[in-house]
Specification:
By secondary structure, the protein is α+β, with helices and mostly antiparallel strands. It is built from 5 helices and 5 strands; from the N terminus they run E-H-H-E-H-E-H-H-E-E. It has 2 domains: 63 residues, 3-Layer(aba) Sandwich (Rossmann fold); 67 residues, no CATH class. The longest helix is centred in the N-terminal third of the chain and has 17 residues.
């Protein structure tokens, strides 16, 4: 399993690239090849970004499953999210997500993670507004 955080830095949308960087192009070509050929050999890739609109189309095409957390609609226009689900994404609660995958009959599901086992908690949930 390989995890690539800030994927939009390595796989930039061609229309938004301001400077051609040979290093980024070489890394992108290698990882793209791993994504295409590695699947058959059991190699998994996870691409993480907070800017899906800045991603290259090839990454969105290669992603079989997408996990989407609370995100602004403007960032989601490039991803094929059903309109009825897209209206909820900017207002998702903590630990909530939309999972889009070919494995689901509807194409997507909403899910929630368990409460963290660490001492972290959302203090805004304890505030009473008057």
């Amino acid at each position: 399993m390989t995890i690539i955080d800030e994927a939009h830095q390595f796989f930039q949308n061609e229309s938004k690239v301001k400077e051609d960087s040979d290093a980024i192009r070489q890394v992108s070509a290698m990882i793209s090849k791993i994504a295409r050929l590695g699947r058959a050999r059991g190699v998994g890739l996870i691409f993480s970004t907070h800017s899906p609109s800045d991603l290259n189309d090839i990454i969105l095409q290669l992603a079989n499953t997408k996990v989407i957390l609370r995100t602004e609609k403007s960032q989601l226009e490039k991803i094929s999210i059903p309109k009825e689900a897209m209206e909820y994404l900017p207002r998702l609660q903590d630990r909530m997500m939309l999972i889009e995958s070919f494995a689901f009959r509807m194409g997507y599901v909403f899910a929630q993670t368990t409460t963290p086992l660490t001492a972290h908690y959302d203090i805004s949930a304890n505030i009473t507004y008057y």
